[in-house]
Amino acid sequence: MLLKPLFLVVGAASVALAASNEPLRSCFENAITDRGSFAFAGDLFYDRIVNRYNLNIPVTPAAVAFPTSSQQVADIVKCAAENGYPVQARSGGHSYGNHGLGGTDGAVAVDLKHLKHFSMDNTTWQATIGAGSLLSDVTRWLYHAGGRAMSHGICPQVGSGGHFTIGGLGPTSRQFGAAIDHVLEVEVVLANSSIVRASDTENQDLFWAIKGAASAYGIVTEFKVRTEPEPGTAVQYTYSMEFGHPKKQAALFKSWQAFVSDLTLTRKMASTLTVLENSMAISGTFFGTKEEYDNMNLSNKFPGANGDALVFDDWLGLVSHWAEDVILELAAGIPTNFYAKSTSWTPQTLMTPETIDKMFDYISTVDKGTLGWFLLFDFQGGYINDIPTNATAYAHRDVLIWLQSYTIDLLGHISQAQISFLDGLNKIVTNGELPFAAYPGYIDPLMPNAAEAYWGTNLPRLQQIKEQVDPNNVFRNPQSPSPAKKDSF
Ligand SMILES: Cc1cc2nc3c(=O)[nH]c(=O)nc-3n(C[C@H](O)[C@H](O)[C@H](O)COP(=O)(O)OP(=O)(O)OC[C@H]3O[C@@H](n4cnc5c(N)ncnc54)[C@H](O)[C@@H]3O)c2cc1C
Ligand SMILES: *[C@@H]1O[C@H](CO)[C@@H](O)[C@H](O)[C@H]1NC(C)=O
Ligand SMILES: *[C@@H]1O[C@H](CO)[C@@H](O)[C@H](O)[C@H]1NC(C)=O
Ligand SMILES: *[C@@H]1O[C@H](CO)[C@@H](O)[C@H](O)[C@H]1NC(C)=O
Ligand SMILES: *[C@@H]1O[C@H](CO)[C@@H](O)[C@H](O)[C@H]1NC(C)=O
């Protein structure tokens, strides 16, 4: 008796939904004639097509489109803008806030999975990469095009579209810069559906905004990037410790912080300190020989931890080793319910020994609401710090250490206790100072001052450029920079 009215309600709702999207659908049908190139809310298998990454955020776009060319991207943007829909590109779909689907219901998601072209100019070693390519594609293609590489993060399923436009920090970033620092030119579809190129010599303001905040400025369809020769021999090391007394953990953390805050430390050293429910580890890649590595005497630096080192002579082997990282498997393999936050320290704002003690006391006593949580302290600095804060929209050039904190639930939604654990941790480690500098690639959908925390002092200029290229805010998600207020005259 109960089921029938329920079906009627659902049926009526999806009929209403479909009807309200009818003008958009017919615009798409006129513009794109390929079969299967778009789907609408209410269509068969729509949930599977939407394919949310963070199950904790049940975003439902009005439509998902799968263009096969820049011109089709432009046609889709035109239809969406004319009918008043917000638009977001989706490349790898790995936004923590499901921003590639709009971040909130009712957007048009433009999935770029068909834009996967690649070519290499072997006189300049500059590569052209379609913005639907995943990091795994990019690594493989560059390698086979003359043993080349570029900096990027370690998760193979992340998309170049979201990664090369937000920052893109990885193990070689201390030597060669973030992924955005490799981008020399882009092709981009704007809100008025024109297709333009942007670089340091053409549409410079747009190019500046694309390098750190692209999702609010257009849809990048193609990147031209500089590349490096693939790194040669590398040593992958781990120093781990079972969880014991918080004082022991704090001591290991202090040794690590001292190690990475030595500004003479080679840029060939990458390092992450991981804290889990039952253990703690310092791990990373040293881009040099085993002999050079041994000469650094790391085991003397991390007393109480058990060391282990693996030597890699081939780049693809090393990259797949990164991808096998246990934590990454947990986060990347299957869509899950999770919540994440980030914060950071510069050489001037590092935690004091007392704050480090407080952090580990907090971790050992607070209700975390789950066993599925982890903290990653990533050593940054190096090349990224050489670039002025105002040179790209990506603003956090002075960061020495990033903290990414995660809480996961494999079965259901994230609880308030889980969120409170990460909130409380951030307050302790930053001495309660606001606004936190947060990494714009680790979306925290609950952060109230998000745009400020993501783009810092570059936000006002971003808002001005937004006013010029997208005054009606076609490209938006709940945390993107809004156009500058027009009431300034
Ligand atoms: C398991 C995992 C590991 C990660 N590791 C790292 C790491 O090591 N280093 C690091 O820096 N980051 C890392 N990240 C964060 C990652 O860089 C961001 O989540 C990134 O934005 C994802 O890009 P995407 O294309 O996969 O996501 P999507 O959800 O497709 O897009 C994310 C955002 O970028 C926008 N966007 C996507 N494509 C385009 C385009 N072509 N033009 C304009 N805007 C576009 C979308 O609209 C959306 O707002 C990791 C993420 C995950 C899930
Ligand atoms: C560049 O590519 C061309 C064509 O594939 C090839 O003949 C040439 O040897 C390459 N040059 C280098 C330096 O790899
Ligand atoms: C490493 O340890 C050896 C022996 O303990 C010492 O002679 C050497 O100076 C140390 N090197 C560094 C870089 O600390
Ligand atoms: C960045 O700031 C410096 C110093 O204030 C200034 O000289 C430079 O023109 C700025 N660059 C950009 C791209 O705005
Ligand atoms: C589209 O917008 C860009 C950026 O504002 C502008 O330069 C260009 O002239 C516009 N094109 C058309 C056809 O209106």
TrEMBL record:
Ranges of Polar residues composition bias in the record: 470-479
Signal peptide: 1-18
Pfam families, sorted: BBE, FAD_binding_4
An example Gene Ontology molecular-function term: FAD binding
Superkingdom of origin: Eukaryota
Residue ranges constituting the FAD-binding PCMH-type domain according to the UniProt record: 57-230
Record key words, sorted: FAD, Flavoprotein, Oxidoreductase, Signal
Record region (Disordered): 470-489
InterPro entries: BBE (IPR012951), FAD-bd_PCMH (IPR016166), FAD-bd_PCMH-like_sf (IPR036318), FAD-bd_PCMH_sub2 (IPR016169), FAD-linked_Oxidoreductase (IPR050416), Oxid_FAD_bind_N (IPR006094)
Protein family membership: Belongs to the oxygen-dependent FAD-linked oxidoreductase family.
Family annotation (PANTHER family): BINDING OXIDOREDUCTASE, PUTATIVE (AFU_ORTHOLOGUE AFUA_1G17690)-RELATED, OXIDASE, PUTATIVE (AFU_ORTHOLOGUE AFUA_6G14340)-RELATED
Protein name in the entry: FAD-binding PCMH-type domain-containing protein
Organism (species): Penicillium egyptiacum
